[in-house]
Amino acid sequence: MAATLGLNKVFILDKYFSELQKYWETEKRLQDATSSGEASNLQNRLRTLSNGLVGLRNSLHENGLQNLDSAEPHPPPIEAPQQVQQNYSNVLQVGPDQTVGLDNFAGSAPHLNFGSTFGLQTADGFSTMRSMQSHVTEVSSVMTGNVSDPSINSADGGLDTFNPGDSGARVLAKDHLVPNAQLSPPQPVNTIQPNYYNIQQPAPVVAGNHSRQSPPQQLFPAHSDSNHVMKDNQGGIMPRSRGDIPYSSNIQSHALPPPPPIPIAGEGGAFSRSAVRPRTPPDERIRKRERDLADEARKSRLAEISDLIHLEPQMTEDAILRTLQARFFNQKYLTNVGPIVLSLNPYRDIGNPLTLSSTRSNGSNPEITKVIQEVIRLQGESGYPQAIIISGSCGSGKTHTSMVVLRQLFESAGGGTETDTFKHLAASFTVLRSLGAAKTTSNRESSRIGHFIEVQVSDGALYRTKIHCYFLDHNRVVKPLPMEKNYHIFYQMLAGLTEEEKKQLGLSGFTVKDLLYLNMGDTRQDEAQDAQRFAEWKANLAVLGIPFMDVIRVMSAILLLGNVEFAPRATEESYDVEIIGKEELNSVSSLLGIPTSLLCQGLTSRTHSVRGQQMKSLSDANLCNATRNALAKALYCRTVATIVRRANSIKRPIGPLSGTMSSGSNESVHHELASHHASTIGTAGSKKSNKSMAMLNNAVRHATDGFIGILDMFGFEDSKPSQLEQLCINLCSETMQHFYNTHIFKSSIESCREEGIAMDVNIEYVDNVPVIDLISSLRSGLLSMLDVECSVRGFPETYVQKVKVQHKDNRKLFQPKHCDINRTFGITHYTGQVVYDTSDFLDTNRDVIPDDLVSVFSRGICNFGFATHLFGNEIKAMCSQGGGEIVPRGVSFRISPTSHPELLNGDEPVSTLTQDFHTRLDNLLRTLVHAKPHFIRCVRPNGSDSLTEFDRNLVVHQIRSLQILETVHLMAKGFPHRMRFKAFNARYRVLARFNQLYRADEKAVDDCEIILDCYVRELRAMAPDTLPQNTSWAHGRKHVFLSEGARQQLERIREERRNNAALRIQCLWRAWTVRRRTHGRLAQTGRGLNVQPTPTNANLNQAGPCFPSHWDPKFNNAQNARVSTRRPRPQPISGTPPPDLMQTDRCDLKIIQQTCALFGLDLERPPPIPPSRSYSIVSGKKVTFPQTRLMKMQYPDNGKGDILLLKGDAIVVLGVSTRRGHLIVEKMNQTLHVPFHYLEMGPL
Q1: Where is this region: Actin-binding (predicted)?
Q2: 488 with 582, same domain?
């Protein structure tokens, strides 16, 4: 009976702790659950396991009570020692000769509460609560029977209570039976939980816990374990006789760990961290989970899906997220959604300055290369402008992507990186990057200047570029936020200037912590990196032809201006101020070339116009400090604008072509040409002259219509607090999102509705027009109301009050909590809610500098020409209004240069900051509307710039805000592409035979149907598993509507047909060449050879795959002559065709020719490319010709030629060749034209 009792307890204990281990593991998985469905399944499993544990425990108690009377008497149980709580971090090592004590564990869930300690010693030195790893199948029936017993779940037999009457039960630990182990009720749970995870870890040894018990005797000798423990062939333990099981005289009471409570969602259980404290720290557990997810993602098949329209079987948000995660961990950061590209920021090079030169090591990306090739093809064939729009949140990698796109555009369009255009453009971006980038809370390389790069392609090369900049963040110069930094150039200056240069500039002894404009924010600095970037900035500034000392003097003056403070003097005069930092003021006046007294007068006094009379007044300390900050911001903004103008003027060609946008301060070249010809040809104001000018403008517009633009605008921001700059930035982001929605969703849906085409999917996208109207409406928008408040000299409180009254029923405007309700309001943007603080709205929007300060920069006072040039237009306006004298009249000018031709409207500037930004944004939209857009959507994978972290919550938020799921549904199941019948026929007529098509304008619809029939036959001949999900098309009244799958298949078939045709031409040409050579040789020897000029069908069939089966050799020149000699321009493949207005504005070809003849223009030839310079740029330095370079590879490749240049040979480069992309080299007194990519610079 005792043997049976012991074996049953062995089996039940083994099963009990096995199920308890499963419970702990399931509960840990429940804490890490990410979806409600998974959490619900895990909760049901926890309930099942808990019920099973209750059944096992009750079985053990009932078994002990039934057999307790038949057992022989035992000594009374030893009193339980005091409960000890300890952590596994303090566990003592257990040796083979030590006595192991299993102390009292207590936890909230699961509760391990051992009322006493019992000791045991084994030969291997380790003690566990379970000795058998295999499970006994007989115990399963016991557990199952107890689960079904309703009495188990009663109040008396709860999940975490024991029956106190069960005394005298025996407990088996390891392989030993301990008789008279008394079951005691559970002790109160201690709030200090032990860190346990695996119950098979060695039990801790605690000094003092064994003082009340004698050393336990060895129950089983080490050499006889195999004899006493008998196992069957299934791994289970065989029953033994009672004589095989010795008993210990040391009996201690013991309580089994009760089953833990079931965590319930909504009651702090499902995702509660207090349920189980793991043995490992939370950070380590999170990192382990991330590593596991990364390993699973690397092995996932979803990483092979390069286009999200091919997701099977369901296109859900979770499927998109898992696909992007798998591709991210497999280092595939670019994913297509049809023609749209999703780019995950890889964070592979954190220290990258994000310039055009820094992308040298980046290889070509197939996804981006495909977009660029499509852009170049459409621009070359149709002549329509193309725009690559890069959008995303702040820190998503837009700037890096734009630089990669621009570099690959140069490599694909011809010329490569050795052209002067690329070199100067790279130098421009290196200079502008230091001036326009700063560290923010969310991005250490945040671009504070938006760019629109306009590129024109001619004769296979990029010959002209122009940069349009959008600068908003002016206040950062004088007041960076506490956790952010000022612009990079200031830190790079302090790290890169020599001591002699610092002494010359007045910065000797100053550090980041000593300058007020820098120590307001983050003062940490990587001096080595900043010094290196400053050296590159200095070298590239020289490439642009901008004097280094001119720019650096202005930057030093800005830094020193911050240390000039004005404080009220302790006198009765409230306007008497005291200057703090007179030495810095003297240094500033010396750097700017202005007398100190006049500079101080301009900072501390104001001129007012009272009834036509000018009067001067002193300013108080606050107004003086504000004027000082206005001067610093004006110097910085105007220096950046001057550098941009200089960079664009370098690349301006000599010819009639110019930019399509005139938002900058530079005038367009065609306006200059118009003025020149108007003054030299004909009579000014005559009808002939006016007609000629109109013809010239139309002709130039026809020639300059096409360009390729790359847009890298501001990403959405949520700074705390958000200022007026953030409101304008978010308005720009909202506008770009609306442009995306209009082009992708609205135009496709409305076109299908107009032509009666039904789509299989209903696209419900979020339209953000209400938010744009709330901000930029001309009558009641927030920006318009701000301009009105600035004109009446209002206050932030009155502005916020008027906004709330005007838009009280607008759902996009909300009242933030825990903020100053008199100065703040909130807007619900397409990415979330943002709270704006209006404390500085009015001053930032006014954006003015008084003419008292501008007048000191006139040539008569200022001897620094660069500083005078910064305020040149303002000084001219003052001179014209003052009758030739520059005298302050009490007017104000804009701090930043404006795009408006007029500077003043009375005594105030003609525009405010928001008006000027809104005007430039409208000009940008007008340019984009007339262009074919191509979208690249950037996504930020995590917020810590980590290479191995994928934040699912952050990515999901961006997927929803960018409406990626709706885009996938439209591309996969809708008709996002539509083409006119003529454009479709011109593009895909190669699918049908030549004699099948009518090739007439009135038969365009019939030709379209014939081509589509051929397309359907091609699809039927293909294997079903190779076809995409949706290859459907629809025939409308004006357009052919195509799904993305159909467009891809049409392009694939077209490419195959064109390749086959090229192979056929090559075969025919090579065969004809061979026959001609053979015939010539035989004619010289006197023998003739009959050569058939046209191959027969048999010969063509024997030629192999070069001749498709549908090729008919009966086509002759007479049939080819029927083809129209005037080939129509093909329309774009996808998207909305340009409006008819563009076609009606174009001049007739004869009018263009007459105009060109009249003014001496030749539009048939490309504009002249600027001659190559007599030097090359290496590491920011000019290296003149001749140069010594090394061969990177053998030239020629085939090893044939009179002169062979081997890899590693040092050769002399004489200059740039007339052949594009070639250099003239000298070898053995002979000159060769070698491609530039075969050469590399040797050591300088």
Answers
A1: 921-943
A2: yes
User: Within its chain, how far is the Cα of 148 from the centroid?
Assistant: 56
Dist CA 714 CA 951 (whole Å): 23
Look at residue 517 and tell me whether its pLDDT is greater than 90: yes
Query: Is 351 labeled as ligand-binding?
Result: no
Indicate whether 924 and 1004 sit together in one domain: no
DSSP-assigned letter for residue 1205: B
| Per-residue tokens: 116 | 């006493």
Q: Is 1174 exposed, middle or buried (0-12, 13-18, 19+ CB in 10 A)?
A: exposed
Whole-number pLDDT of residue 1209:
86
The verdict on whether residue 855 carries a ligand-binding annotation is no
Residues in the chain: 1244
What are the pLDDT digits (tens) for 541-586? 999 989 999 999 999 999 999 999 999 887 666 567 889 999 999 9
Residue type present at position 822: N
Cβ atoms of residues 1045 and 972 within 8 Å: yes
**What helix, strand, coil percent values describe the chain, rounded to 5?**
45, 15, 40
Q: What's the pLDDT band for 221 if we cut at 50, 70, 90?
A: very low
Structure-block tokens of residue 594: 């202005």
Burial 904-940 (b: 16+ CB within 10 A, else e): beeebbbbbbbbbbbebbebbeebbbbbbbbbbbbbb
Q: CA nearest 511: which of 497, 583, 552?
A: 497
User: Would the annotation count 15 as a binding residue?
Assistant: no
Residue with tokens 């969703």: 745
pLDDT at 691: 52
Given 11, 37, 59, which residue is the final one in a domain? 59
Q: Of 272 and 1220, which is predicted with more confidence?
A: 1220
Q: Is the dihedral angle over the CA atoms 897, 899, 901, 902 positive or is it negative?
A: negative
Long-range pairs of 295-304 with CB within 8 A, sequence gap ≥ 24? 297/322, 297/325, 297/326, 297/328, 297/329, 297/330, 297/950, 298/326, 298/329, 298/330, 300/326, 301/326, 302/326, 302/327, 303/327, 303/329, 303/330, 303/332
| pLDDT surpasses 50 at 340 | yes
Query: Are 344 and 941 in contact, with CB atoms under 8 Å apart?
Result: yes
Output the average pLDDT for the chain. Answer: 74
- Residue 643, pLDDT score: 94
Q: Is 763 helix (H, G, I), strand (E, B) or coil?
A: coil
Compute CA distances 906 → 598, 609, 665, whole Å. 26, 12, 21
Are the beta carbons of 1063 and 1106 closer than 8 angstroms?
A: yes
395 is in an annotated binding site: yes
Tokens of 1118: 């007479």
- Same domain as 932, residue 1027: no
| 393 annotated among ligand-binding-site residues | yes
Confidence of residue 1022 (pLDDT cuts 50, 70, 90): confident
Q: Same domain, yes or no, for 441 and 570?
A: yes
498 is in an annotated binding site: no
Is 938 annotated in a binding site? The answer is no
355-379 pLDDT, tens per residue?
Answer: 888 887 777 789 999 999 999 888 8
Same domain flag for 469 and 520: yes
Q: State the pairing for strand pair 340-344/932-939.
A: parallel
Lowest mean pLDDT among 438-452, 776-790, 940-954, 1152-1166: 1152-1166
Q: Is 932 labeled as ligand-binding?
A: no
Tell me what pLDDT residue 572 has: 61
Question: How far from 283 is each of 118, 442, 480, 942, 943, CA to CA, in Å?
Answer: 35, 22, 33, 16, 16
Q: Is 1238 helix (H, G, I), strand (E, B) or coil?
A: helix
Q: In which element (H, E) is residue 29 found? A: helix 2-31
- Structural domains in the chain (count): 4
Contact status, residue 5 vs residue 63, Cβ threshold 8 Å = yes
Read off the CATH number of the domain in which 496 is found.
3.40.850.10
Mention every residue, 6+ apart, whose C-beta is less than 8 A from residue 1100.
1107, 1111, 1113
